[in-house]
Design goal:
The protein is mainly alpha-helical and 284 residues long. The protein contains eleven helices and no strands. The protein is flat. The model is unreliable at 40-45 (pLDDT under 50).
Amino acid sequence: MATRDPFSDRHALDDNPFADPTISSALQSSTSLDEEAPTPTQATAPAGGFEAQAAERMAGIRQREEDLERRERELQARAEHIQKHGRNNWPPFYPLIYHDIPAEIPQEHRSIVLLIYRLWLLLVLVLILNFVSCILLLVQGASDGGKDMGASIGYLVFIPIASFLGWYRPVYNGYMKEHSLFYLMFLFFCGWHLLYSIYCAIGIPSTGSAGLINTISMLSQGKLVAGILGVVTTVGWIIQGLGLAWAYWQVYNHYNRQGHTVAQAKGELTSHGFKAYFSRGSQV
């Protein structure tokens, strides 16, 4: 049986296999689909996306520059303050001492020290109100208005300084350094201040307080302006007195729990004197 030579037709190898109309049509369709299909960048990138990203980056850079400039100004102001006043930062208008509850008071005692500090600020506010009330007592014809106003001026000048040095600063130092001497100072002077608060809340005429008695007298005479401000002042005396009485009790309990004694206070006074009162930190 004779076999056919597959290579006998030499012209078959010369034919283009893609010349078939069916194959050419399929190839053209595939090419057109590839041209129409969007690239990944075209499919995902929104219109104007590059401009928006660039603007966002520029805004971030400007914000960082502003933050750096602000921090630089703060550091410069702090450096100037330290150069002029040292580390002293209180009172803000003319720094004489260093006062920083978060930095110097242990975390577990910050709330009570902060409360006592706010009560001291309330005391200053009440003294100002009391002074204004006594002026109104004088203006609206109180028989002892002149004496009340004169005494209220003395209170306004003397009491804030005496209370700060007598009982606020000692309790601040006490919780910072845990010295018995400071707690005893607070308990002694704050006890007298509580009596003074009761005295002012009563408001005896000619004593420099627009308290309860002076307020009732003004209201009974129809002097409403002096009477209303007297009510506000009386309420202020009561609030700061009650708040300080509660704080006094808390400090007294802490004093006992920590085992502080009068003997320890005497020893601290002998060894340190009042150096620890004016020094910072717990080492003294």
